[in-house]
Structures are given as structure tokens and as C-alpha cells.
């Protein structure tokens, strides 16, 4: 029954998109080929005459589909340069302006988490919700120690999210089963990575740990402000922090103060993210405008640490060298780094790949950001992943997603923001420090420590090897889903519909 339920949910998603005229919308009828116009007309017959702008219809459809789809809408809303400013403006309400649940349910959640007596003592005066997102909502509360922000998960959100992600995983497995080309992009690994990150968001104790860690790092770097966790008022479904005075970046008033230096603010967002990622291998992995607050002093405060990204030293070096290579227009070195990291098959030519990178970098080098079409750059990058047989790297999914978000937010603040120029101070300092004498000594020390640790584990490895010789035979793979051939293409169409829609919208 699991497979049938998953496919029914995918059918519901496709039906909802069609009902809201999101798939092949009438607004872009003149730009579509004849077969697509006919298909769009058929879908609109069943749609019942959806009203509103394309972005409004897409936002309504995603909201009805549930939290996993809302997360996708939040991501799309950070890229007006790719999907169009009108579409992303309409999607922006998905960040923190969703319908809240009642105060009665919020109080019940507190009682369930802490017990009646403790809930009454710890939360004597819980205010109304001031922001509601896909997974939780936030209330303000006054205490003797100052104002607090109380985040409470939506009732039943864990089960709803589990069901939606199960359907998405089923679609990914089906797509891999029916499309050989899709396996290069590893849709199953991609979906599993995103699903695991989203499920961790339903345990607010983990978010509290992430917030505390990010606060510690931010105090060192100085780019962001992060509120302090109130551990006594925090549990699995409730998170309490200090209140942050300021205006969310989703509110146009956040940047209305003429004293705010938009250029410096955008640079702080880019440099703060890169400092955390490259220096420490830890970063806020959900940096949309709803999670960014501009303080009265014009500083950036971060909230909502449900998704924390982590990358190892290899990925940190890869990120730094790629950025540094584009800054210095050293396309050969960029290509070499890709090959060294195993991101491009060794059967390909380093020179050919460097040539392809040059064709991406040179047309945009030195141009103002507002003259660069990020949509075309992303499409060209995608083309070359196919040309050179590059596979999706699951360990980089959150990093890549967040980099796209960060640049989108920075360019919304400062349309002339150039991520390459903004990154130079952070990346340059890290490269000089890591590849100079100090970095060489640290690398040698790390290699010696790794060799020593491997030698210590050698007896254990040999014992496991011997045990494996007498172990059970490898089990047969599970039977193929008999629904896959027919449902596979429906799943593919449903999952890719939003991407196709956004691509068409970006032409406007």
C-alpha cells in the first residue's frame, strides 16, 4: 500500500498544479510550442479557471500541497534574477506569512512538552503568533529577563512531512528506474539529503544546538547576530530564544532607513556565509529573507537554525579554490580542482573543461551584476555537467542550494552585488593562510595523525575481514516496483513541473 499511497499523493500534487494553472500557464501561451499550448489548454479545462498572477497561483498551489512543497517555494523566492521579480515577490509570503494555528493549540503544545505546572510557570504570558512558516510559528513573550521568541511546531507536522517526503522519494526512485540519464544527477541521493535535513527540523532541540553553535561562530566573525537560546524553555517541539529587535527582510520597511548601507549589508551576508563555510565548515543552510532580520543598527541577525550545513576540509578547499580561480580567471586551475576532487570523470580532458569554464566566466567578468543573467549562467553550467558527464555530489547539495539563496538575498538588497568581488577578502585570506607555510605545516600534521589513526585500526579491520569470509551471502535486491513503468513518467512530470514553470516564467 505504501507505493499506491505515494503515487496518489503525486497525482494530488499534479492535479493541484493543474487546477491552479501552474503547469504550462496561459500567461506564457504565446511563447510555448504548439504541443505545449494544446496540453496547457487541456489542463486548464480541468483547472476551473484559476485566477491571479502566475506567482500567486504557484504560491497557493504549494501552500495547499504542504510543508515540503512550501520549502521549494521559499527557495524559488530567493532568485528574482532567475525566475522574475513578480513571481518571486508573490512567492515571498511562503517565508513567514502563512496562516497560523490557534493559540489554544499552541498552549496545548506547551503543556504536552513541559507538563501543565511547568508550562504555566515558564510561559505565563504567551503573546499571539507574530510569524508563521511551513513547520512552525513564533510567539513573543515577556519575561523578567527580557523578551523571548517562542517557536512552536505545527500540530501533526512530523507525520505530514514524512508522508510528503515519502512520495518525493518514491518519485526519485522511479525516475532513476526509468531514465538512465537521470542517474547522473542522482535524484535519489539528492532527495534523501534534503529529506534528512528537513526531518531534523522537527526536533527543535537539534535546532537549539545549531543556534548555539552559530552564535559562538558569529561572535568570532562579527558578520551576524544570533539570539541566545533559553535552554530552560526549550524541548523537542518548543524552542525559546532571546527576542531580536528589528524588521524581517521580507518586510519592505526593513531597508527603508536611508542610513542603511545596502552595499555593506549585502557584502556582510555573503562574507558571513563564506566565513562560516570555509573557515569552520558549518553554515546556516536556510538563509532566505524570512530568516534574516535587520536590526535598528543596520546589522544582520539570523534566526531559524533548523537546517545546519556541514562540509569537510576537502569540500572547503574545493569551494575556496573554485571561487579564487574565478576571481583570478585561472580556468585551468579551476578545472584541475574539479578533476582532483573527482567531480569530473578522469576520462575527460582538463583542457577541454577549462575551455568550457572560460566560456562561462569571461562573458560575465567585469560586468555589473544587474547586466548578468544568472538564469542563462545556470543553464550553461547545467549543460556542461551533461557534456562532461559530471555526477551530482550529495554532500554538496546543501552548500550549492545555500550559495544560490545567499546570492539571491544579497542581490535583492543590493542589485549591483557581485558575489565574486564580495568573496575576495574572505577567500583570499583563507587561501593564503591554508597554502602558505602555516597551512603546509598543518597539512603535514593532519596527514601524520590520519596515518597513525589508520594504523591503530588495522587489527580491527583485519578481524572484520576474516569474519566477512564466513558471513552470510549478499541478499538479493528488492523486487522492482510493478507500478514504476506507468507511474514513473507521471512522477517525473509532477516533480519537474515547478522547474519547467519557473523556467518559462523567467523569460518574462
Summarize the structure in words.
- This protein is 60% helix and 9% strand.
- With 508 residues, the protein is of the alpha+beta class.
- The chain folds into 3 domains: 12-98, no CATH class; 99-132 and 135-243; 247-435, no CATH class.
- The strands form 3 sheets. It has a 4-stranded antiparallel beta sheet with strand order 1-2-3-5.
- Strand 8 and strand 9 (300-302) form a beta hairpin.
- Helix 10 (157-178) runs antiparallel to helix 11 (187-200) and helix 19 (419-435) crosses helix 20.
- The longest helix is centred in the C-terminal third of the chain and has 33 residues, at 437-469.
Jot down its keywords.
508 residues, alpha+beta, 4-stranded antiparallel beta sheet, 4-stranded mixed beta sheet, 21 helices, globular, disordered C terminus
- Give a short account of the largest sheet: 4 strands, antiparallel
Proportion of residues in extended strands: 5-15%
Euclidean distance between termini CA atoms: 43 Å
Strand tally: 10
Biggest sheet strand line-up? 1-2-3-5
Mean pLDDT: 79
**Shape by Cα distribution:** globular
Low-confidence stretches: 476-508
Write a short abstract of this structure.
This protein has 3 domains: 12-98, no CATH class; 99-132 and 135-243; 247-435, no CATH class.
Q: What's the arrangement of secondary structure elements?
A:
Elements: H1 2-19, H2 34-47, H3 54-65, H4 67-76, H5 80-83, H6 85-91, H7 93-96, H8 103-114, H9 116-122, E1 126-132, E2 136-143, E3 146-153, H10 157-178, H11 187-200, H12 204-221, E4 224-225, E5 238-242, E6 247-248, H13 262-280, E7 282-284, E8 292-294, E9 300-302, E10 308-310, H14 313-328, H15 331-340, H16 350-364, H17 374-387, H18 397-413, H19 419-435, H20 437-469, H21 484-505
Parallel strand pairs: 4-9
Antiparallel strand pairs: 1-2, 2-3, 3-5, 6-8, 7-10, 8-9
